[in-house]
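Forum: Protein Structure Q&A
Topic: Joint prediction for protein chains with partners

I've read a bunch of threads here and the consensus seems to be that you should model interacting components together rather than docking separate models afterwards. I'd like to see that in practice. Below is the full input, 227 residues plus whatever partners are listed. Could one of the regulars post the assembled result?
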Amino acid sequence: GDSVTQMEGPVTLSEEAFLTINCTYTATGYPSLFWYVQYPGEGLQLLLKATKADDKGSNKGFEATYRKETTSFHLEKGSVQVSDSAVYFCALRRNSGGSNYKLTFGKGTLLTVNP
Amino acid sequence: GAGVSQSPRYKVAKRGQDVALRCDPISGHVSLFWYQQALGQGPEFLTYFQNEAQLDKSGLPSDRFFAERPEGSVSTLKIQRTQQEDSAVYLCASSLEGYEQYFGPGTRLTVT
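Posted by a regular:
Agreed with the consensus. Here's the joint model:
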């Protein structure tokens, strides 16, 4: 079945450091890929997405590129801020076939950014 | 505008009690989803509604779990005879069909 594997946390960085959170997936066909963020006490929010190979999703300084060859969708940010401290989830959704509506999530990566 | 709301935000139940968790989706959203998020894990799919029709309940862990959306708007997830392994955060999401899912803040259920 479909699965998402993401980098185990927690990740602790100093402000302005470079961030990478790795994500790889297993799925039938070519799914859409997502990064969600969960700030303390809040619900999941969509951070960025990519719907086909080589697409780059970007938002709030975060970027991720859909790599079909390596089945990866790594999240990057050049300079993190304290306000980026949150849990980050990688997820996929099938684009065709059965169950092309539900999200399959990784386990999440806790990011803490210190001033 | 208003997002997805869930109530209660926190629920403590004694083992064996029944609980009901409510989800108010964004107005006009056809699709509604329930996910279960165990501690330290990512959300896992439970069930999916399109309007009032429950099209997929394959993720419900046992027949103690039941979900409904009788008028195609508000949804209730009911858990009968709660067990300790039911302790988790229950997330509701809604969407226009085929588009981004918007999540509520979740209900944290603790079974003692």
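Chain A has a mean pLDDT of 94.
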